[in-house]
Amino acid sequence: xxxxxxxxxxxVVFFGGAALMLAPALVAGSIYAGxxxxxxxxxxxxxxxxxxxxxxxxxxxxxxxxxxxVDGLSRSIDLARLDGARHDISLLARLDKRYSWIGVxxxxxxxxxxSGGILEGESVAQRPWFRLGLExxxxxxxxxxxxxxxxxxxxxxxxxxxxxxxxxxxxDGSVAGVxxxxxxxxxxxxxxxxxxxxxxxxxxxxxDQRVLYGPPDLVEKPLTVGAAAAAVRGTGTAVTRExxxxxxxxxxxxxxxxxxxDLPSFGWSLLVxxxxxxxxxxxxxxxxxxxxxxxxxxxxxxxxxFLIADWVAVPLRRLVxxxxxxxxxxxxxxxxxxxxxxxxxxxxISLVRLQTRLRD
Length: 360
Prior knowledge:
By secondary structure, this protein is of the alpha+beta class. It is 51% helix and 19% strand. It has helices at 9-76, 82-95, 128-135, 146-152, 185-193, 226-233, 276-328, 342-359; strands at 99-106, 111-114, 138-144, 160-169, 175-184, 200-205, 211-213, 238-243, 249-255, 269-275. The strands form 2 sheets. The chain has a 5-stranded antiparallel sheet with strand order 2-1-5-4-3, with helices on both faces. A 5-stranded antiparallel sheet has the order 7-6-10-9-8. A hairpin with a 5-residue loop joins strand 4 and strand 5 (175-184). The radius of gyration is 41 Å and the shape is rod-shaped.
């Protein structure tokens, strides 16, 4: 005896049609959503890369403008004419407010001439910018100049500077002294601030991976994420996606060098980062809308498929009922004349003929 089937024709049509309809839609939708998110990440990385490279170049070019002034003075200043040197230095400091102080010192470290006469006669022999400037053109990382701060500061806010220095040479090439310039760090931070955008953060790193500029919770702290290590290694622009100390995932681009032409190296590198969640939020909204639209369409299609399955199954149910009646008792009325589709029409005709024979 044949085993009874557990599913009806209506179920076969409905569930089979649903599987054939939904499976390709789900696979295609998943591929589309994944591809869209991946494409968005690629575009975000390119955007951050462009911003980082342009930002590093822009900062380096502006610093190079300052360096050209210092380098030009190092070639033109004659320590035998200190009045002329003091005039040139003071004029440059007045014209360009980015300089907090410019001065020249003898080879022994005594300041001979300076903008505004500040620190003249005092010794700077132990200052890093002076010691480096005796050997070569040099750039110094951000620092607080306590001696200069007493003359320029307001007593409340600490003053911070970066240094540019170069040797002063005699006609025979020997070193006669050093010219040094303190550049206001606030100008650097304002420049870096202009490089950011909504949702995008710019981070400036020292050569020892210390954050010089960036989010307040990171400033003056060592940064140990992979993006910082890639930036300090100087292996070229790199893109990383990782979890940062605040527990959030960021996509970051590291630019390993901030330099232009003959600008002495500060040892800086630049990071540009953006939160993955905030960056992908519009894409996720789009994907969510896509799945909502797909789900709505699928529900409508399933409802339509249910009606179709019922439309297909109803004639067969009526014919089955008529056949069952023939098995148990004499039929009181002929089978319903089915004509929805060819198979049930022919089956209906066959049952009518069978009923007629049984009566005969």
